[in-house]
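Input C-alpha cells:
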C-alpha cells in the first residue's frame, strides 16, 4: 500500500529530478512542509529515505541538502547495477525462485500492466508512487531470491548514488507521453525477464536484465536533460 510518506518521497524525487530543487540547495522541513501542504513528520521520514538513496545529504548543523551529481556519474552507477542485477537474474533462473518469490514477480508484472492501462486512459499520467513501489519490489525480490548476500550488499551501495536505484525512476511529469513509452518498454522487460527466469534460461535472463539497466540509464539521461533545459 502506498502511504503518505511514499507520496511525499516521490514528490521530492520528482522535484529533485526536474531540478525544482537544485543540486546543493538546502531543504528545511518547515519550508517543504508548507510547499507540499503536509505535516512535518512525513517530510522528516521522507528526508531520511532520500538520504539513504543518496539524493539528499545531512548537513552538519541542521537540515538536508540536495546532493550534487553528474549525468556521467549516474550512468556509471547504473551500468554497474545492471551487471550486478544481471548476475542476480541468472542465479535466480539457475536455482529457480520459491513459490512465494514467483508470486511476487508475477504480481509485479500484473500490477505494471494495470498501471499502464490506467495511464493510457488518463493522458498518459502514470500513478508514479505505485509504479515506483512496484518496481522497487520487483528488483528487490530478484536480489533476495538470488541468495547471494554479497551481491545484495553491493547493489545497496550502488543504489545510494542519486537516481541510480530501482526506486528512483525520475518520473517528474514533464514529458508524460515520453515517460509512458519508457515505462511500457520497462514493463516488457519485466515480463521477458520473468519468463526467462521461470524457463530456467539463466544466460538470457542475465542479458535481458543488463539491457533493462542500459535502457534505464539512457532514459534517465534523456529525462534529466529535458528537465534541465532553460
Amino acid at each position: 500500500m502506498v502511504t503518505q510518506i511514499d507520496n511525499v518521497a516521490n514528490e521530492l524525487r520528482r522535484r529533485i529530478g526536474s531540478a525544482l530543487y537544485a543540486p546543493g540547495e538546502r531543504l528545511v522541513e518547515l519550508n517543504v512542509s508548507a510547499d507540499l501542504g503536509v505535516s512535518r513528520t512525513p517530510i522528516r521520514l521522507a528526508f531520511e529515505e532520500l538520504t539513504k538513496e543518496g539524493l539528499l545529504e545531512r548537513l552538519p548543523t541542521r537540515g538536508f541538502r540536495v546532493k550534487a551529481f553528474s549525468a556521467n556519474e549516474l550512468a556509471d552507477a547504473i551500468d554497474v547495477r545492471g551487471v550486478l542485477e544481471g548476475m542476480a537474474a541468472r542465479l535466480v533462473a539457475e536455482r529457480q525462485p520459491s513459490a512465494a518469490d514467483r508470486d511476487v514477480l508475477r504480481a509485479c508484472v500484473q500490477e505494471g500492466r494495470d498501471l499502464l492501462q490506467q495511464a493510457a486512459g488518463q493522458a498518459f499520467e502514470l500513478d508514479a508512487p505505485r509504479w515506483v513501489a512496484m518496481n522497487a519490489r520487483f528488483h528487490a525480490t530478484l536480489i533476495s531470491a538470488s541468495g547471494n548476500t554479497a551481491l545484495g550488499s553491493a547493489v545497496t551501495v550502488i543504489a545510494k548514488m542519486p537516481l541510480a536505484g530501482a526506486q528512483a525512476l525520475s518520473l517528474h511529469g514533464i514529458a508524460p507521453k515520453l515517460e509512458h513509452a519508457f515505462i511500457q518498454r520497462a514493463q516488457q522487460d519485466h515480463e521477458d525477464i520473468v519468463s526467462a527466469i521461470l524457463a530456467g534460461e539463466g544466460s538470457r535472463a542475465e542479458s535481458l536484465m543488463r539491457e533493462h539497466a542500459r535502457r534505464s540509464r539512457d532514459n534517465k539521461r534523456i529525462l534529466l536533460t529535458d528537465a534541465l533545459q532553460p
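The chain has nine helices and three strands. The radius of gyration is 17 Å.
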